[in-house]
Design a protein that fits this description.
Elements (H helix, E strand, L loop, with lengths): L6 H32 L3 H36 L4 H36 L11 H32 L24
Length: 184
């Protein structure tokens, strides 16, 4: 059984993991465009971004699962309000679904469309149906990423709000100083 003494480290781990998750999602969001600009070709940049996105999707699934377990453990040690608990669990579930959709539905379909178009994908006119379909899928991919970012950040904020608050001025109890013996 988890005791009250383990509550603080568990909450710290939960906060660390949600912050790490939010940070990696944010870093990928900002870095994907940089990868495309720095790569020799857009296709090369796309390969790198896809590998990073796959890793991010898998880690999102793992973190969402781990955070769900931690949330249940935390609730046993120091129960969260019913609203915070319910919203937190739903946020983690939504983030897991978004990662699943990205990893197993959207990304494979995007790869299949690129393969269907061949090496000349970037040369296709903007009006080409394959480009339109790929653009829609890319939009869904971005949406699943943003959903995870919002969910991870909100999960962090809700858990942070559960930190025990100490009244102002009671940070550390003052000790009474006793003079050494023999002094007056």
């Amino acid at each position: 059984m988890i005791t009250g003494r383990t509550s603080r480290p568990l909450l710290g781990l939960y906060l660390f993991l949600t912050a790490l998750w939010s940070g990696t999602l944010l870093a990928f969001t900002g870095g994907a465009g940089l990868v495309l600009k720095a790569a020799p070709t857009r296709a090369d940049g796309g390969v790198v971004n896809r590998a990073l996105l796959d890793l991010l999707d898998v880690s999102s699934l793992a973190l969402a699962g781990l955070l769900l377990i931690l949330a249940f453990a935390l609730n046993r040690t120091r129960p969260w309000s019913r609203t915070v608990r319910g919203v937190s669990l739903r946020l983690l579930a939504v983030a897991a679904v978004a990662a699943f959709v990205s990893l197993y539905l959207v990304t494979p379909e995007m790869v299949a469309l690129r393969a269907k178009a061949g090496a000349a994908f970037d040369l296709l006119p903007a009006t080409d149906p394959l480009r339109h379909a790929w653009g829609r899928l890319h939009g869904l991919s971005v949406l699943t990423l943003l959903v995870r970012l919002v969910c991870a950040t909100a999960a962090f904020a809700l858990a942070f709000a559960q930190l025990p608050r100490e009244p102002a001025g009671s940070a550390a109890p003052e000790r009474e100083v006793t003079p050494p013996e023999g002094s007056s």
